[in-house]
Amino acid sequence: MENKKELRTWLDDLKLNHPLVVAGPCSAETEEQVLKIAHELKDTDVSYFRAGIWKPRTRPGMFEGVGALGLKWLQRVKAETGMKIATEVANAAHVKLALEHDVDLLWIGARSTVSPFIVQEIADALEGTDKIVLVKNPVNPDLALWLGAVERLASANIKNLGVIHRGFSTYEKTKYRNTPEWQLAIELQSKFPDLPIINDPSHITGKRDMIFDVSQTALDLNFDGLMIETHYDPENAWSDAAQQVTPETLVQIMKDLKIRKESDSEADYNDALNNLRAKIDVIDNQIIELLGKRMVVADSIGTLKRQKNVSVLQSKRWNEILGKMVLEGQDHGLSEEFILKMFKAIHQESINHQEKILKK
Fold it and tell me: Which segments constitute the Chorismate mutase domain (predicted)?
């Protein structure tokens, strides 16, 4: 990872006047389906046509892909449309077949990234290749594991590297299929600014009607491109039907997205400002989510107090919290005055929640 500048060469070489777009069906289902979608995408912003050939599924008995047969369909896509082709690989055998069929871009999925053994096997099979290799973040929010996978590939003399941010699994139910944890992706960008990063709003959202908003946030945070699952008949797709969009919808999404362009010093200032504001928006949303979770715990405390006939205000506990938070705030450059005002407001909201419960 020392020669980071080299990592961006493949993206610069594309000379695009728009973000990189990788699109196509979650799964290759039939040759007709693959070719129909590809021809509908060939004159759009899509540079790489993607299709899942081998599908790692959560539970057995689900559709796990058509296998190597689908690689021939991808070859036809390249021959007929001129688009480059991309697919996921999960082991050395997949890599061998993908290279034999001249797949241009290979990515390692989230379930594979979690295993250094699998990543090393793939790295060994790809050693020295000039193909583009992208690494999806691991299922859990572990930055070291994500970067470790990239480093294993870099050590195998693979120059054309990048990462895909597809969100992280959580046991908590949220509006996302996989929570973005934007802060982790931002940290990766700050550590390796020349490592291309692609956003996968399809897997983050799990819902097609949320794809635009997540894509816009990604571009505001200076992501280099998008991977969006696209199907001419999403409702009847064989896998992940709810998160796929039609080619027409994809084209409209790309038209509606606000893309920041650098042109002069004023534009540079605005780009930097918009990027910082986008980061603040992400953090503000995290604060609201955390406060919501805090109030859920406060409700549970209120229920316990009601059962035991205990008063809402516990002065000793409250003073302990304030003292601790003032010290914590100082460690993060926050004034005592600010901490006191903020936690008094939070405490009052907790009291309001608990009083509602006690009055039931």
Answer: 267-358
